[in-house]
Amino acid sequence: MKAGVIVFPGSNCDHDVYHVFRHVLGQEVEFLWHQEEDLASCDLVVLPGGFSYGDYLRSGALAALSPVMAAVQRHAERGGLVLGICNGFQILLEAGLLPGALVPNRSLRFECRDVWLRVERTDLPFTSGYKDRDVVRIPVAHMDGNFQASASTLDDLEDSNQVVFRYVDESGAVSSAANPNGSARNIAGLTNAEGNVLGMMPHPERCVEELLGNTDGLALFSGLIRETVGILQQEVAS
Fold this sequence. Notes:
Elements: E1 2-7, H1 14-24, E2 28-33, E3 44-47, H2 67-77, E4 81-85, H3 87-94, E5 101-103, E6 111-119, E7 135-142, E8 146-148, H4 151-159, E9 163-168, E10 187-191, E11 197-200, H5 218-237
Parallel strand pairs: 1-2, 1-3, 3-4, 4-11
Antiparallel strand pairs: 5-8, 6-7, 6-9, 9-10, 10-11
């Protein structure tokens, strides 16, 4: 399996994601500059966190117009896996690969702390390493992390089971107090209808090693690799 980590001007979590794939999990991984027009045969593409283009205009708005995003769009349309983390989630929304928008946090402050997430689906490559309704501790670090959409869009997301992660308390209960940014229905991460594009605000790449005091994010990456390799093997066999 080969992963690609897209680097935009202002990305600051690209090396964290690269480290997870290369040094923690021993996978082939490559940086992809935002001006590239192809994805170098990568099976999985990650849009990392940061402040692409300085968050000018809106978070992710300028990055969504980068040349590489046309290649990401084609990759997603072919069923290729795409993961957007924090600013990467913002970019996916601005590019129209996921529905809704991310606006300033309810507190109007930058939120940087650990939060609890409930895993709502485990039938996706991104969540195959978790158990149903697992409650995991993952850090957030964002200013514009408040996910909002129209009532009808939110209903559609719920009805089609596209909500993948939800902010909860340590016991797994949904509450306003457990919501770090005011996101509608405590949504922390969602997928497209096909299940191959995932956007999430929390940072799983920051909790994959005991050295960091938490490994709850490791299952996302290890499960994703296992599922991707399985898909590739099936394609070869067919």
